[in-house]
């Protein structure tokens, strides 16, 4: 049985922090030092993000206790007391900042910036149309940058731009899925969702999709544009494009309606509302990620063997 203290940290959300490993992989600098640095950044961001999950559950405890599902959360159910949750949050966030600063001032500053962003998001930005999605995207950019800071690997600006575009894409798809699920269930909607419409989100989706594919294509075209260390990374572009298109399918209103129908092999619609569940549960997305990683490592190996010169 899972410990309520561990459950309160929401470990399923930690998959979002895996982006810290992109820095050494995208820079073709995979060695023991970079891997250990990435694991450190991953652990620190897991601690920092979990501290805010705890704080959010503390703030929303009364509302959660009236919710049919959220009432089962450890803090709302009383399995974890509020004083203990506060202590856990302080230790996790404080420890992440201190250890990060000891590793690198840039890493410590990035964790502090992430923490300030989370405070702003919870106090104001999550209720502000458009800026709520931008704030979510910035969280992913901070994670990506932390991977570079922890490993002392300089990051290409195209890599950071691509990260921002992909994160914006995920944010827009999340809002689409939320709108559709509310329409299906007829439940209450958050204030910020009333400012969105499918038409607006589809226009935003078009912009960020084009931006994500374009920035990745430029990065993968090679060092002549301050991108990847070899233009052979263009071979991975089909995986990125398929992954984006697959994710769009999962958040498509008609697809969500189809998946919510009884008897569809137990599938549940609206998975794109939860990116971490898409990565873990959708087989085509998972295979796409595996294909991208294997292809990238194959290119890295061929380059280190001198078979690929540039």
Number of DSSP strand runs: 0
| Strand percentage | under 5%
Please tally the helical runs, counting DSSP H or I stretches of 4 or more residues.
Answer: 14
Give a short account of the largest sheet: none
Order of helices and strands: HHHHHHHHHHHHHH
Average per-residue pLDDT, rounded, comes to 86
Shape: globular
Task: State the oligomer.
Answer: single chain
Report, as a whole number of angstroms, the end-to-end distance.
Answer: 52 Å
Helix fraction by DSSP (H/I, runs of at least 4) = 55-70%
The secondary-structure class comes to: mainly alpha
Low-confidence stretches: 262-269
Rg calculated over all Cα atoms: 20 Å
Give me the secondary-structure topology:
Elements lengths: L3 H5 L13 H5 L5 H28 L1 H5 L8 H4 L4 H22 L1 H19 L7 H21 L5 H29 L12 H23 L16 H15 L1 H7 L15 H7 L1 H22 L6
Helix pairs in contact: 3-6, 3-7, 3-8, 6-7, 7-8, 8-9, 9-10, 10-11, 11-14, 13-14
Key phrases:
310 residues, mainly alpha, Tetracycline Repressor, domain 2, 2 domains, 14 helices, 0% strand, globular, UbiA_sf
Question: What this model shows, in words?
Answer:
There is one protein chain. The protein is globular. The chain has 310 residues and is mostly helical. Helix 11 packs antiparallel against helix 14 (283-304). The chain has 2 domains: 8-154, UbiA prenyltransferase (Tetracycline Repressor, domain 2); 156-310. The longest helix is centred in the middle third of the chain and has 29 residues, at 157-185. It has 14 helices and no strands. The protein has helices spanning 4-8, 22-26, 32-59, 61-65, 74-77, 82-103, 105-123, 131-151, 157-185, 198-220, 237-251, 253-259, 275-281, 283-304. It is found in: Membrane. The chain crosses the membrane at residues 35-55, 75-100, 106-123, 130-149, 155-172, 231-249, 284-302. InterPro entries: Prenyltransferase_related (IPR050475), UbiA_prenyltransferase (IPR000537), UbiA_sf (IPR044878).
